Amino acid sequence: MTGAWVAVDSGQTGLRLVSGQLSGNGPGFAYSEGDPVATITEAVRIAALDAGLSDPVDVACLGLTCYPDDPADRARLGGAILETLQAKEVRLCEDMVTAHAGALRHGDSVVLAAGTGVVCLAVGEDVYRKIGGEGHLLGDAGGGFAIGRAGLSAVLAAADGRGPATALTFVAEQHFGSVSGMAQRIHRTTAPVATIATFAPEVFAAADRQDPVAGEIVANAAADLACTIAAAVRVFDRTVPVACTGRVFETGELMMAPLRKRLADLAPAARLVPPDGDPLDGAVRLATGEPGRYARLMSVHHAAKSVPVAKETTVDSRVPFPPGALLVSCQAQPGNPLHGPLPMARMAAAAAAGGARAIRANGPADIAAICSEVDLPVLGINKVACPEGVFITPTFADAVAVVHAGASMVAIDGTARPRPGGESLGEQIRRIHEELGVPVMADVDNLTSGAAARAAGADVIATTLSGYTGGPVPDGPDVDLVSALVARLDCPVVAEGRYRSARDVRAAVDAGAYAVVVGTAITNPMAITTQLAKAMS
């Protein structure tokens, strides 16, 4: 009998799947296989068949060595896995996330996962830092592929006189045939990365037998892994626990002893501790419980979504735009030739003619001009600079100004940052509801603030401030946050922030967005021209 969940750990050498008492294996991921979505889906299908998994499941969590960077690809993969596993919900994340969840789930900590490849994750309060994970062509120093490759390179070097003799030669010939033609045979294998990584255990075994060439390879690998850990530990300003997980560490002290020695010099704040479990254990934890602090690192997908609003979603009747609406943000900053009420009103008219269902606008003057120009609801904001960092309609008085100018709805900063005058988010929302009689959209930056804003009474949650409250601003939209908010909240979720193309908008809709706001890509020709001019040069 199958369980109600599925957990998957997918690496370059193989894929492991568990569901209750069932377990199965599938092929590893290879970048050369073509479409990553199709490759991963087929590997999961094979593992599910191997496990004898046949019944539908509630939740599946997949930790992936090739987690898609493109939100649209993540949406495609989520949909494919939903269908393959007959799942109600699919949680996708990088394998470093499941590695961390399996090894050290609580408190500030660093987890290094070294299997075929290498990746490290530092997690703390508002700290999420990935180190490494660039794949075998550009990174993975100290991992199984790198160790296996170094061992085979040493065998080839010994054969033609470039390097010293090594006991690895005999073992390599047992695996791959005579040294003559060995390189060509390995290159012709269907999965060269996995094939080369399988030689890593032989390198460790030779090092344990005191072969100096193998010993040097292991020492160099330990030094590489220590550098990766040190970079992660420097994220914190104090001693933090560090757990090492993955097949490279199944050798015990053969790897841990030189790693410990090197870390003492590079990162004395690193406190090595044994891991609680491995990446598959982490996938089980994230499939069977709430993601918690890992939620922002996951992409969540649901079956049979009635896009854009699930049945359990509560939509306030005062929300002035329908599900599936495109909202256009008409704003121009001082210094932009389009700054001012008249240009923004004409821009709003063009957006209306193109099919916009509502306009987002800033400031009483622009809002009043737009309301007189177009017969569309206006989502009003009032950007006011303040030292606390909250600047989108930071006070009730700012909300009053935009509603009196004609706004049908007010958007406010919904993050956890301090608000001017000591007014709470809940109090501001309550006063807008009771005294102004309009619904409130909370612009948030993460899942935690989104849940808090909804609890404080916000009618709609928007991802507007994701990427803008600390750290570098990402290039693309945060579709994963849309998915996470849709999964958690019972109100409409609006996708906003860096949506620049039809593909971005489609990804947001597929993630469950009630509506999507697009601004710069439609209404800021100066910014668009700047980007294109840079491309020309």
UniProtKB/TrEMBL annotation:
Keywords: Carbohydrate metabolism, Isomerase. Its EC number is 5.1.3.9. The keyword Isomerase applies. Transmembrane segments: none annotated. One of its GO terms (cellular component) is cytosol. It comes from Amycolatopsis panacis. Belongs to the NanE family. Converts N-acetylmannosamine-6-phosphate (ManNAc-6-P) to N-acetylglucosamine-6-phosphate (GlcNAc-6-P). Residues 33-254 form the ATPase BadF/BadG/BcrA/BcrD type domain. It is an enzyme of class 5 (isomerase). Pathway: Amino-sugar metabolism; N-acetylneuraminate degradation; D-fructose 6-phosphate from N-acetylneuraminate: step 3/5. GO terms for biological process: N-acetylmannosamine catabolic process; N-acetylneuraminate catabolic process. The lineage of its organism: Bacteria, Bacillati, Actinomycetota, Actinomycetes, Pseudonocardiales. It catalyses: an N-acyl-D-glucosamine 6-phosphate = an N-acyl-D-mannosamine 6-phosphate. This is N-acylglucosamine-6-phosphate 2-epimerase. One of its GO terms (molecular function) is N-acylglucosamine-6-phosphate 2-epimerase activity.
